[in-house]
Amino acid sequence: MGKPSGLVAAISRSGNPAEVLRGPLIYVVILLLATVVFWRESVVGLVAVAQMAAGDGMADIVGRRWGAQKWSFSSTKSYAGSSAFALSGFVVSVALIAWFNFWGLVPALTAGVACKVALISILCAAVELVPWGDDNIFVPMVASALASWLL
User: Fold this and answer.
1) pLDDT above 70 coverage of the chain, percent
2) Which residues pair with 78 in a beta bridge?
3) Which residues are within 8 A (CB) of 129 and not within 5 positions of it... i.e. 6 or more apart?
4) Exposed end of the chain (fewer CB within 10 Å): N or C?
5) CA-CA distance, 14 to 2, in Å (whole number)?
């Protein structure tokens, strides 16, 4: 088949068109479901989307660029990527909660909520390290479950 199209090359890691039907498609479907189920008035949805979009997204970018030191149990996951996941997931979750609160859609962000969001972000970063399954499914599921329980 030759060289992959620009779109396939942009959204797949290997350049294989079949890969687009796995990770990126699942990613979009999960984001769509989170938006439909939790739209506008749920901190749970905001946290789940932030963990997946910002946390997982930045883990990939930072891990590829600065991820020389890998976890001992995973040759593809790095300390830098995991740290970027937790930090980005936290920052974007807090920013979304504050923004949606500004518009009166969710309760105010308190220090207690921020601490719980930090814990959720760290635990989601740990879930992303699991070598089996699809993190595009498990990260938002765990984020939703933890946010439902803690927030």
Assistant:
1) 85
2) 70
3) 71, 73, 74, 77, 82
4) N
5) 13
Q: Do residues 123 and 140 make contact, with C-beta atoms less than 8 angstroms apart?
A: no
Query: Which is more confident, 114 or 29?
Result: 114
Write out the chain in H/E/C secondary structure. Answer: CCCCCHHHHHHCCCCCHHHHCCHHHHHHHHHHHHHHHHCCCCHHHHHHHHHHHHHHHHHHHHHHHHCCCECCCCCCCEHHHHHHHHHHHHHHHHHHHHHHHHCCCCCCCCHHHHHHHHHHHHHHHHHHCCCCCCHHHHHHHHHHHHHHHHC
b/e 51-89 (16+ beta carbons within 10 angstroms → b): bbbbbbbbbbebbeeebeeeeeeeeebbebbbbbbbbbb
pLDDT tens digits along 27-48: 888 888 888 888 778 999 999 9
pLDDT at position 79 is 97
Locate 123 and state its tokens: 């635990």
Q: Kindly report the backbone phi and psi dihedral angles of residue 13, in degrees, each rounded to the nearest multiple of 5, phi listed first.
A: -85, -30
Q: How confident is the model over 48-73, as a mean pLDDT? A: 94
